Amino acid sequence: MKTALGYVLSALVASVHASSLHALRHSPLHDERQIPPQLDYNLYPRAACDNTNKSRHCWGNYSIDTNYYDETPDTGVTREYWLSVEEGACAPDGYARQCQTVNGTVPGPTIIADWGDSLVIHVTNNLKSNGTAIHWHGLRQSGSNIYDGVPGITQCAIAIGQSMTYRFKVTQYGSSWYHSHFSLQYANGVFGGIVFNGPATSNYDEDLGHLFLSDWSHVDVFTRWFAARNGQPPALESGLINGTNKYDCSNSTTDANCTGRGVKLTTVVEKGKKYRLRLVNAAVDGVFQFSIDKHKLKVIAADLVPIKPYSTSSLKLTEGQRYDIIFHANQAVDNYWIRAGWLNACQPNAHPDSITSVLRYNASSTEDPTTTSDVTLSSDCLDEPLASLVPHLKIDVTNIQKSFDTYLNISKQVDYIHWTINTSSLVIDWANPTLKQVFNGESLFPTDYNVLAINKTTTDKEWIVLVIQDQSNLGLEHPIHLHGHDFWILDQSTGTFDASTSPQNFKTKNPARRDVAALPGNGYLAIAFMPDNPGAWLCHCHIAWHASEGLSLEFLEREADIKADVSDSDRTQFDGICQSWSDSLGTQAFPQEDSGI
């Protein structure tokens, strides 16, 4: 979707998507170098096995069995990207409006790298009236907390006309996404894909890249905030798959913005081949139950965690979650609907059944599919069953050092509804991030920052447990996302957590792990993680309205060790970004009207 020409958006999206796929099919990205015969082969060991369509478990001298928390390849390769956060006219589903985008497209360009590469990503704020910052969702950022990309936590907001360079090592592999963490900005289009090539738990022939599933507003999402903050989250008009769809304008003949020029995304396959798809729920507020008519889905990863493959007819994704799937093109040569599967029971959408795209076995076909779905949509908004999400790399939870029992509630304050954790609702200051306070040696943090301090007490592996109990009595599920860590899901239940008895039901033997999990309405979520990554790490609900309403806390992890990971050049840039933001205050047109995240 090009911002300058709203009526040709969808074709351009398809072109961008196809070019990304071509690059993906040639992984690993780094060149295979031939060893000259005169050199000592012992200095240049040959790869143990190649990653091919018959050996996806392989990755050179590493494999799907490598403990990626402790060991990472070092390719010696640095990949560099330039991203421009900008705005302009758009019509991704054929309805014209103003968008905020990355490099003029929704989604923005895909960041592609190999496991073990280094990334240098330059982000420039070319918006007219917003600050910005880019978060790299799901990345552990080990040793690089300063580049996690959350304004008010790990950096100041990037001022208009200014640039920031993010630098970090690729220590994980799989599928994720990046998005603005500046208020509701990503809901206007500021997001894109991340692909880190590496091994997989099942074989496939071709990688089709991302399928972003998202709801879509026909007006600027910031204008919807005023209704949402009073407890009435609006039903958005439409939804997109990879930034495109065809909105029905037949009932909007007097609306000049309804151009009717949207198109469905089309994916062409060859009968007999197996294809990998990387699904992302990028919704503001909504749960999907994804399916492809007449095709089974083999699930091979949950977020950035490879799992033991399992087969299903459909797959539920809450906000912020990702799944890697494989489907076999083994049906009759025909056209089939790909269904995002919006669950209206979780949050209404004006056109839930129209969020679809087309799977074609014949590239020359132009007909719409006539297939029907045999999937029964769920009446709840919870995750996939934990019993299905078995990590391939087995890690048990042992030696629990500390447990935080927290209580989620909701209150109406003077300005708007606030979600609270332990009676406090998060509100940060884009000019005074937590890391700035750490660097300045401040010992007390503002109450509204919801800071929980954690430290490592022994040299052995130890675990922190966070229990969130929903006491709001509203029955709403909340997708909880933790920055800087995968977490192990010990329990995910309805009812009340009892500190004396509930831990007896904790699953500690290789439990499901990921970085986003649903907190059941009126229930509790118990997660565990290791305090092995010094930094200020946000933990928040990924429903955008709820994050804006303060449903978040932050862990200040091993504060005494944070500065050791920050180089002089890191600190110089950090201070410069904060100075330019402070200098812009009074001239920036966008006031902070929510939590800031």
Automatic annotation (TrEMBL):
It catalyses: 4 hydroquinone + O2 = 4 benzosemiquinone + 2 H2O. InterPro entries: Cu-oxidase-like_N, Cu-oxidase_2nd, Cu-oxidase_C, Cu-oxidase_fam, Cu_oxidase_Cu_BS, Cupredoxin. CDD domains: CuRO_1_MaLCC_like, CuRO_2_MaLCC_like, CuRO_3_MaLCC_like. The keyword Signal applies. Keywords: Copper, Disulfide bond, Glycoprotein, Lignin degradation, Metal-binding, Oxidoreductase, Repeat, Signal. Belongs to the multicopper oxidase family. This is laccase.
